[in-house]
Design goal:
The protein is 67% helix and 2% strand. The protein is mostly helical. Among the domains are: 36 residues, no CATH class; 163 residues, no CATH class. A two-stranded antiparallel sheet has the order 1-2. Strand 1 and strand 2 form a beta hairpin. Helix 2 packs antiparallel against helix 11 and helix 6 crosses helix 7.
Length: 343
């Protein structure tokens, strides 16, 4: 088979061409310039590229399903590993030329473009929705509302409300609220100390949040906490009285009535609390969906800009040249050692 050597783009690289390739060349000079064709990078294009965002999708739905969020990292890690291995084995022209430097560049690219920056975008989207909720009628963020609801539910689960029964056997809500005031103060204290975090990144985020997110006040915490206590105690009592609470489906109420028909009062009270707890968790779940939507929206808006920023600025202008310099120094040292051994 006829083969020849052709100069590509004036670079000191020689490529063997077969007869068919040589016949396609229209030689007009002694040094014909041929532009090599870059291979298609399937890892940088959809739908394969979407695998790099599975972990961000998981983080976006973490408020809804933590387990799925953890599992979402598996395909992302597999995608990143495959891309780095591909860049190590061959260059952009499909030449089998293993290169640690090329693999290092792609590792940095994937670390930024598929892990840190997109995850940060998701967290920002969730934080904006979470903090934006404080501008509603409650004056509290979604997270703060959840902590208050969880505090009341935990208290009722441990039976603390039974310590405040009046002569009619009903819970004295005012006395019960007063007993929980210390726990609600802890929620407010947590918010204030959380903002004093010494981590530089978190300090920057908290500084931004202080400018945008509405400040939590003791009045708002107390008002919302009292409304949660009223709602949960009233819903529980309605079930015990044979009345369907607002928001409970007819099917669920009939199921409760049927299940508690032959129960003792203590068993019925326990079952009523389980129904009330599920109703409250359902309300919190709806709020988590809003946070997930915020995270997904931020990811959709920032995915492409992040890719371009990492590839065209971070890697091409800063990280890439540094890796090339380190690689050149390494090869120079290796050649110098070989020269000494030969001598």
């Amino acid at each position: 088979m006829l083969k020849g050597l052709v100069l590509i783009n004036g670079i000191n690289n020689s490529y063997l061409l077969n007869r068919e390739q040589l016949n396609k060349i229209n030689f007009k000079s002694e040094q014909e310039v041929i532009k090599p064709v870059k291979r298609k990078d399937i890892y940088a294009e959809m739908p394969i590229r979407a695998l790099g965002y599975t972990n961000e999708l998981g983080e976006a739905i973490r408020p809804i399903s933590p387990m799925l969020a953890n599992l979402s990292w598996l395909p992302a890690i597999g995608y990143i590993s495959a891309d780095i291995a591909d860049k190590y084995k061959q260059d952009e022209y499909s030449n089998q030329d293993p290169s640690k430097g090329r693999a290092s560049k792609q590792f940095v690219t994937q670390l930024l473009a598929s892990v840190f920056l997109p995850t940060g975008a998701v967290k920002i989207g969730q934080s904006l929705v979470n903090g934006g909720a404080a501008y509603g009628k409650t004056g509290l963020s979604i997270n703060e509302r959840e902590r208050i609801s969880d505090t009341v539910l935990d208290s009722m689960k441990s039976g603390e409300h039974k310590n405040f029964l009046n002569e009619a056997g009903l819970v004295d809500k005012d006395a019960y609220k007063e007993s929980l005031s210390g726990k609600f103060d802890e929620i407010l204290k947590h918010q204030n100390t959380h903002k004093k975090n010494r981590n530089p990144l978190k300090m920057a985020v908290n500084l931004f949040k202080r400018q945008v997110v509405k400040k939590v006040t003791p009045e708002n915490v107390k008002k919302y906490a009292n409304s949660v206590v009223d709602r949960l105690i009233d819903e529980r009592q309605q079930l015990l009285d044979g009345v369907a609470p607002e928001g409970l489906s007819k099917k669920a109420f009939n199921k409760f009535v049927k299940a508690t028909k032959d129960m003792t009062m203590e068993e019925k009270q326990s079952h009523a609390f389980d129904v009330v707890r599920k109703m409250e968790k359902g309300r919190m779940f709806n709020n988590r969906i809003l946070k997930s939507i915020g995270g997904l929206t931020a990811l959709a808006l920032m995915a492409k800009p992040i890719d371009r920023f990492v590839e065209n600025i971070v890697v091409d202008k800063y990280v890439g040249p540094q890796i090339d310099n380190i690689s050149a120094m390494y090869h120079k040292q290796q050649n110098a050692r070989k020269g000494k051994v030969s001598a």
